[in-house]
């Protein structure tokens, strides 16, 4: 039995779940316009532990969304995950944020392009096939009306970045899911369990989030 705490804070969605052998027991999340991760994360963790009747000492591992995404959100999530792992002497699992977003939609054909808004005309993107295998690397991409012209077949776009660019990506091959804005710790459950089974852990001391872009302080 593997009990895993999943933490997803890469976007405005502050999301946590507890899973047993890949099945989510309790998930709690909130997406607010102004990031509230610092205030809500540990409160949510305490609440899901109580609701699932699981104590932190029973955890087998902690999984965290590794990015790309918000610099501040990723720092908060990774710092919390590392703290639990150090204190409990359990492994840390890192999960691709864009994969989490892609896993929120099921397709039969075509590709899935999860898009996280990176401000201005940019989005953090990758490309996955119908089995969620990554077929194009993660990048910070400038999106315009000519994007993805070389790709054939249905293109399924998810995330707050996809919603942002829907007005300019108007070809019939583009399919949008406006109800899917953010990645969630709920989808982390199956992925983190598979990584746990394969002992796919990251180095607790040296792991850093995948920021993709340098942090820039707005002045």
Keywords:
single chain; 2 domains; 219 residues; Nucleotidyltransferase, domain 5; 5 helices; alpha/beta; 5-stranded mixed beta sheet; globular; 10 strands
CATH topology of the largest domain: Nucleotidyltransferase, domain 5
Largest sheet: 5 strands, mixed
Label the CATH architecture of the largest domain: 2-Layer Sandwich
| Parts with pLDDT < 50 across at least 5 consecutive residues | 215-219
With strands numbered from the N-terminus, the spatial order across the biggest sheet is: 3-2-1-4-5
E-strand count: 10
Helix/strand class: alpha/beta
Number of helices: 5
Give an overview in words.
By secondary structure, this protein is of the alpha/beta class. It has 2 domains: 3-97 and 183-197, ATPase, nucleotide binding domain (Nucleotidyltransferase, domain 5); 105-176, ATPase, nucleotide binding domain (Nucleotidyltransferase, domain 5), CATH 3.30.420.40. The chain has 5 helices and 10 strands; from the N terminus they run E-E-E-H-E-H-E-H-E-E-E-E-H-E-H. The chain has helices at 37-52, 71-88, 97-102, 160-165, 185-197; strands at 3-8, 13-20, 23-31, 61-65, 92-95, 111-117, 122-128, 134-142, 155-158, 174-176. The strands form 2 sheets. The protein has a 5-stranded mixed beta sheet, with helices on both faces. The protein is globular and about 50 Å long.
Gist of the model:
With 219 residues, the chain is α/β, with parallel strands linked by helices.
């Amino acid at each position: 039995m593997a009990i895993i705490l999943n933490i997803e804070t890469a976007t405005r969605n502050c999301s946590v779940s507890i899973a047993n052998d890949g099945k989510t027991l309790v998930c709690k999340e909130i997406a607010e316009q102004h990031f509230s991760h610092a205030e809500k994360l540990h409160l949510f963790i305490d609440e899901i532990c109580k609701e699932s009747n699981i104590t932190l000492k029973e955890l087998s591992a902690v999984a965290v969304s590794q990015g790309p995404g918000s610099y501040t959100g990723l720092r908060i999530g990774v710092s919390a995950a590392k703290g639990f792992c150090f204190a409990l002497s359990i492994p840390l699992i890192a999960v691709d944020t864009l994969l989490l977003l892609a896993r929120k939609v099921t397709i039969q054909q075509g590709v899935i392009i999860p898009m996280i808004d990176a401000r201005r005309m940019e989005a953090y993107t990758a490309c996955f096939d119908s089995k969620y295998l990554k077929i194009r690397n993660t990048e910070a991409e400038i999106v315009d009306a000519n994007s993805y012209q070389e790709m054939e077949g249905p293109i399924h776009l998810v995330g707050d970045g996809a919603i942002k660019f829907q007005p300019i990506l108007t070809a019939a091959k583009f399919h949008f899911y406006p109800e899917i804005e953010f990645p969630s710790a709920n989808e982390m459950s199956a992925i983190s369990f598979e990584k746990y089974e394969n002992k796919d852990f990251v180095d607790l001391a040296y792991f850093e989030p995948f920021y993709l872009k340098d942090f820039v302080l707005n002045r």
